[in-house]
C-alpha cells in the first residue's frame, strides 16, 4: 500500500507539472462555461429549450468534455508512453509491479476528472446560478457509470496502442466522437434526432446526465449500456494489456 501511495503522489505531481493537462483537462470546460455565460442572451430562458437557459442546458455537455478529455486523451497517451519508453518493462524487475503504476494512473486521472466536473458545477452555480442536479442520486449513478465506461475505453486504447503517438491518434478519434454525440460541438437540440439518439448510448451518456440534472429518472437502457461498455472494455484491456 505504501508503494502505491508513493506512486500516486508521484503521478499526481507529474500531472500537475504538465501545463496542458492542467489547463485543458481541469480548467478548460469551466472556462468555456464561464465564457458562454458572459454572453447575455445565453443567460436568458429559451423557447427552443422549453424555457431553460442555454448555459443550464449546456453544463452537462461540459461535464462530458471534462471526463472525455482526461479519460480518452490523457490516460491512454501517458500509459502508452510509459510502455514505449520501457518504464513498465523496467518496473517488472523491481518489487513494485507495473500494475501499481497503472492503478496510480487510474486514481490520479479519476480524481482529476472528478475535480474538473466539480469545477464546472461549482463555477456555474456560483457565477450564473445554474441549478444543481435535481436528482442527485440518479446523477451520481449516471456519472459513475459514464466515467467508468470512458476510462475503460481509455485503458483499451492504452492496451492496443504500441506508441504514445498511436494512442494519441486513436484517442483523438474517440474523443471527437464522444464530444460530437455528447453535444459539445453542437447542442443536442440542434442535432438530427437519429444522431442525438445515438449519443444517448455513447459514453459517458450525456442524456442520462441531462435527465437526472433536470429531475427526471434516466432511462434504464443507456445506463445498462454504460455498465456493459465498462465491463467489456475493462476486461478486454486487462486481458490484452502488454507491459512491454
UniProtKB/TrEMBL annotation:
Residue ranges of every copy of the ABC transmembrane type-2 domain listed in the record: 20-244
GO molecular function: ABC-type transporter activity
Record's keyword terms, sorted: Cell membrane, Membrane, Transmembrane, Transmembrane helix, Transport
InterPro entries, per the entry: ABC-2_transporter, ABC2_TM, ABC2_TM_bact-type
GO cellular component, one term: plasma membrane
Transmembrane segments: 21-42, 62-82, 102-126, 138-159, 166-186, 219-241
Subcellular locations according to the entry: Cell membrane; Membrane
Alphabetized PANTHER family for the sequence: DOXORUBICIN RESISTANCE ABC TRANSPORTER PERMEASE PROTEIN DRRC-RELATED, TRANSPORT PERMEASE PROTEIN
Family: Belongs to the ABC-2 integral membrane protein family.
Protein name from the UniProt record: Transport permease protein
Organism of this sequence: Glycomyces albidus
Amino acid at each position: 500500500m505504501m508503494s502505491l501511495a508513493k506512486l500516486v503522489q508521484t503521478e499526481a505531481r507529474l500531472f500537475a507539472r504538465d501545463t496542458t493537462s492542467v489547463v485543458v483537462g481541469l480548467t478548460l470546460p469551466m472556462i468555456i462555461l464561464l465564457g458562454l455565460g458572459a454572453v447575455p442572451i445565453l443567460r436568458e430562458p429559451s423557447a427552443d429549450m422549453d424555457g431553460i437557459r442555454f448555459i443550464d442546458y449546456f453544463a452537462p455537455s461540459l461535464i462530458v468534455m471534462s471526463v472525455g478529455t482526461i479519460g480518452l486523451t490523457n490516460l491512454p497517451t501517458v500509459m502508452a508512453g510509459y510502455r514505449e519508453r520501457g518504464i513498465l518493462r523496467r518496473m517488472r524487475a523491481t518489487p513494485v509491479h507495473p500494475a501499481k503504476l497503472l492503478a496510480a494512473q487510474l486514481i490520479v486521472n479519476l480524481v482529476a476528472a472528478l475535480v474538473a466536473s466539480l469545477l464546472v458545477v461549482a463555477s456555474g452555480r456560483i457565477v450564473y446560478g445554474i441549478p444543481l442536479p435535481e436528482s442527485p442520486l440518479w446523477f451520481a449513478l449516471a456519472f459513475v457509470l459514464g466515467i467508468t465506461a470512458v476510462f475503460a475505453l481509455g485503458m483499451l486504447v492504452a492496451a492496443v496502442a504500441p506508441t504514445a503517438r498511436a494512442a494519441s491518434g486513436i484517442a483523438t478519434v474517440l474523443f471527437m466522437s464522444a464530444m460530437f454525440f455528447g453535444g459539445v460541438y453542437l447542442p443536442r437540440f440542434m442535432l438530427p434526432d437519429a444522431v442525438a439518439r445515438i449519443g444517448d448510448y455513447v459514453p459517458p451518456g450525456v442524456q442520462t446526465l441531462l435527465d437526472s440534472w433536470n429531475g427526471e429518472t434516466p432511462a434504464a437502457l443507456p445506463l445498462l449500456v454504460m455498465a456493459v461498455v465498462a465491463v467489456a472494455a475493462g476486461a478486454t484491456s486487462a486481458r490484452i494489456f502488454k507491459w512491454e
